[in-house]
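We modelled the chain as a single entity of 276 amino acids. Its sequence is:
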Amino acid sequence: MSPHISIKGETVFYLAGFPVTNSFLSSVIVVIVFFFIGRYYYQEIKKSDRSLVFYALHGLFKGMYDMFRSVLQDKIKIFYTLLGGFFFFILMNNWSGLVPGVGSILIKEPHKAVIEELKTDYSPEEGTIVMDEQAEKEETATHNIPLLRGGTADLNTTLALALVSVFLTQFYGFKFLGPKKHLSKYFNFKDPIMIMLGPLEIIQEAARIISFSFRLYGNIFAGEVLLTIVPFLLPSLFSFVVAPMFFMEIFVGGVQALVFVMLSAVFINMAIVEHH
């Protein structure tokens, strides 16, 4: 049986008419886990006798704080919550596809195929289309889909993250500089050079959305596809090949989360600083 690979999230069930995909379900679980980690850290910080897990989390939070401060300087206290939330949400979604059971627990989904091109017999006298046995089997056929899928292995998730990042960059630009100074970065008719560069800046903002979303999606989805098809292509070398690939995907997931958030921090910093 060959592996089933879909470039988009598959619908697991419908909730009040809203299609709930396996990637969305994974993202919800990540948010819940993230909430309990935050609650655990908050409770531990009040204690005098703290666990090793707390110190590991504290070291990670402190390291991220220092890294963002190198970019945002004195504005770090304003943006750390946003950027830290971004980082850990993306990181946990990147790694969620590597958790045992994610992608391997399968459920049945009715296959709603288009029947028009299947073999049919048309009877002009009766004015009806009589589907043959093949069409009837195709209509009721089912295939297996994964119950869970890594959140960032779905382009919808990464596109939403990119839109939020670019939108907040513009929002904080207006907030810190004011509408006039912020818009002068794009529309400045007093400077002949800016007349030409302004439209390019607007195009660049739109390009960031595409770059953010496809870079993150492409890296995570490609890694999950490789881990899925390698056992079928190299079954005899499965244990020797998958283990290094698994650790490589852990590394890639961390790097991609860091790249996404650090670029967001750089762009926010550029937006809130007045150009001279």
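As a brief sanity check on the tokenised model: The longest strand covers residues 11-15. The chain has two domains: 11-105+150-272, 108-146.
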